Amino acid sequence: GAAGIGMLIGMAVYLAGQRHLPPDPAIRGGTVHQRLTRGEWRRVGVLLMMLLPYVLFIAAANQAYGLMFVWADTTVDRTVLGWEMPVTWIGVIDGLFTILGVFAVSRIWLSLDQRGREPGDFAKSGIGYGLIATAFILIALLAQLPVVPLLGWIVFYLVLDFGFACIDPSMGALVSREAPPSVIATMMAVLKLSAMFGYFLLGWLGRFYEPLGPPAYWAMTALLPLAAMLAVILLRRPLERASEKN
Question: Are 101 and 30 in contact (CB under 8 A)?
Answer without folding.
Answer: no
